Amino acid sequence: MAGLKTIIALSFVLAIGFLLVILSSALWKNYLPLLVVATYVVAPLPNWICSRAANSDDFMENGGSGVVDFGRFMTGFLVVMGIALPALFAHCGMISYSAMLMSIVGGLLIYGTIISFSMFFQEDEEF
Description:
Blueprint: H1 4-26, H2 35-42, H3 44-53, H4 65-92, H5 97-120
Helix pairs in contact: 1-5, 2-4, 2-5, 3-4, 4-5
């Protein structure tokens, strides 16, 4: 059972992630790295939606595993896009390499916090 210390630690890490992404945009006056926030916030949604859509019955052990696999694929795609998008922008010269690094580290902190939050506060289903 996660307590108050876990919530405080996760909110602190999330704040650092958002601060890095915002600073990567504000310091160089180029707001393209803010797109990373959108990809990392949207990334857990396909996994969550597809896991809810694939409710397994008592009679079928692996019914709907294709839907769950599709959700995991889309989540992985969005996470990789959150890393690759700033790298692409830096390679094209649209943002600087330091902004790319700050954006990637901040985005990974944001996504890691979202995953940690869902892992710590997951409810066990009992019948």
